[in-house]
Structures are given as structure tokens and as C-alpha cells.
Design a protein that fits this description.
TIM Barrel, 8 strands, metal-binding, Aldolase/citrate-lyase_domain
């Protein structure tokens, strides 16, 4: 699917904007597909958009990227037709405000363990009366003031997504209640952190059961649940089997590294014959 076909008409001309992430979730052909962005390069976002991903999560938790870098990547994503979400390091209403006004279609908050933490995140993401986000319609999110303020506010309330990460046993057991918080739009299961917090691995039967129960609880609450996995068909099949509505396949750095290793292995698999080496030796004398 090309970026041009996925681009959503802006609201400046009078039409209502539609979240690319929400539109991808509504497809019936399988989970919405995204990847993490960890490299401070505009080209990463452009390349994954051209590859056909539905969304990216610009990762400010596990990278050294700045808000300004995220701001530029958000702009590239929007122009390339791929939905930009941003994972913040921890809940900070000021950071949330800046990223949303930079045009992010959603905010992902790590380590949401309780209903109270989910409510605090929702308050940071939503405008009054739901939350406490300030109005900044002269930013990119408001088309630099060219968008009607009513549409800027509507988009922030109805289209922007808040993704709560479930990364502990406590969070997994509270997944249904967290999903039911007004303003929470999706859950992301953090299997690695959950397993580590329990002193075990993702394959542990207890962890597998906790995750399955959390996915079921989130789904029952009417909230899509996602996961993060590898860039393989097996990982995609596991996501479908696990009931996930969206899935993150690897990240830009790992995809680049994997392609580089594959290129080197392919090139080094070609061996020169003795005749070839003899010819090369004579040609240099």
C-alpha cells in the first residue's frame, strides 16, 4: 500500500481529519503493522513508510533522541502517510503537550500499572473537560492556525490515541480496569518487562497465562491490544493467534542491521576458484 493512497485529507479545507492509526485498526485483513523508530534519522521514517507499515512508534524511552528529533520525524511520517505515535520515557504532561502539538497521532506511556496512573495519563493527553491538555492550535497539530479550532479540539479528543503499556504482573491483572479508563484507547503488552519483573522469561507458563488473561480483559473492555515481536511470518502468526489488533515488527536499527548482515553473508558465500585467484594475482603484477 503506497503512502499516497494512505494519506488522509487535511481538515484545513473543511473535512474532518481521520487518525491513520485508527483507520489501520479498522481493517479486517489482520493486525495493524508498525515498527519502532530508534535512530535519530528522518530517513528511517520515510523508508518504513515506503515499505508499507501502517504506523511507527518514535521511541523516546529506549533511545537518546530528543523532542526536536521526534518533532521532525512526526512531520516526515505525516507527509509520508504513516501514523506517528511517540513513546515517552515517563509521564510528563509538558512533554505530552509538546509532542501532540508537534502532530503526533498518539502517545504511548510505559509502565502503566494502576488505574490511577492510567487516569493521570489520560488527563495529560485530553483537553478539558476530560483532561488538562492546553490549547495550542497555532502548532502543527492545528495546521499552524489554519485549521478551525473546533476541529483541532475534536481531533485531540476523538482521534488522538493513548496507548498504555502493560509491563508488570500488577498491570496485567488490572488490564481490564486500565482499559476501561476514559481516554485510554489501546494497550500494549510488554512481555519482556513483565517476565523480567517476575524473574523469569516470556515463555514461562505463568507469564503466558498472565498475558493471555490481560489480552482477553482488554478486548472485553472494547480496547484493542497490541504486542511487539520480530519481523517474521511466525511472529505475525503468533500476533494473530494471540488476539492482538496491532503489532510492532522489530525496529529501524534491527531491520538495518539484519539487512546488512544478510548482504555480507550473501556476498561472502561466493568463493573464488583457484583459477580466479591466480588471474587476480597476475593482474596486479
Amino acid at each position: 500500500m503506497g503512502a499516497q493512497r494512505r494519506r488522509v485529507p487535511g481538515a484545513v479545507s473543511g473535512g474532518a481529519r481521520r487518525s491513520l492509526f485508527r483507520a489501520a485498526l479498522e481493517r479486517s485483513t489482520g493486525p495493524a503493522l508498525g515498527t519502532w523508530i530508534k535512530l535519530p534519522a528522518m530517513e528511517s521514517v520515510e523508508l518504513v513508510a515506503l515499505a508499507g507499515f501502517d504506523f511507527v512508534v518514535i521511541d523516546l524511552e529506549h533511545s537518546a533522541m530528543s523532542i526536536e528529533t521526534a518533532y521532525r520525524q512526526i512531520g516526515v511520517a505525516l507527509l509520508s502517510g504513516v501514523s506517528p505515535l511517540v513513546r515517552i520515557p515517563a509521564l510528563d504532561a509538558g512533554v505530552v503537550q509538546r509532542l501532540l502539538d508537534a502532530g503526533a497521532e498518539g502517545i504511548m506511556v510505559p509502565h502503566v500499572d494502576t488505574v490511577e496512573q492510567a487516569e493521570a495519563a489520560a488527563a495529560a493527553v485530553r483537553f478539558p473537560p476530560i483532561g488538562r491538555r492546553g490549547v495550542g492550535s497555532t502548532s502543527r497539530a492545528g495546521a499552524w492556525g489554519a485549521m478551525r479550532r473546533s476541529e483541532y479540539l475534536r481531533y485531540g479528543q476523538e482521534e488522538v490515541v493513548l496507548v498504555a503499556q502493560i509491563e508488570s504482573a500488577e498491570a496485567a491483572r488490572s488490564a481490564g480496569a486500565i482499559a476501561a479508563v476514559a481516554g485510554v484507547d489501546a494497550l500494549l503488552m510488554g512481555a519482556a518487562d513483565l517476565a523480567t519483573s517476575e524473574g523469569t522469561t516470556e515463555g514461562d507458563p505463568g507469564v503466558v497465562a498472565l498475558i493471555a488473561d490481560a489480552v482477553a480483559a482488554g478486548t472485553a473492555a472494547g480496547v484493542p491490544v497490541g504486542n511487539a515481536g520480530g519481523a517474521t511470518a511466525e511472529a505475525a502468526r503468533d500476533a494473530v493467534a494471540g488476539g492482538y489488533r496491532f503489532s510492532l515488527a522489530s525496529n529501524d536499527a534491527s531491520l538495518l542491521g539484519g539487512a546488512a548482515r544478510a548482504a555480507v553473508l550473501a556476498a561472502r558465500s561466493v568463493q573464488q576458484s583457484d583459477d580466479d585467484r591466480s588471474t587476480d594475482s597476475r593482474s596486479t603484477t
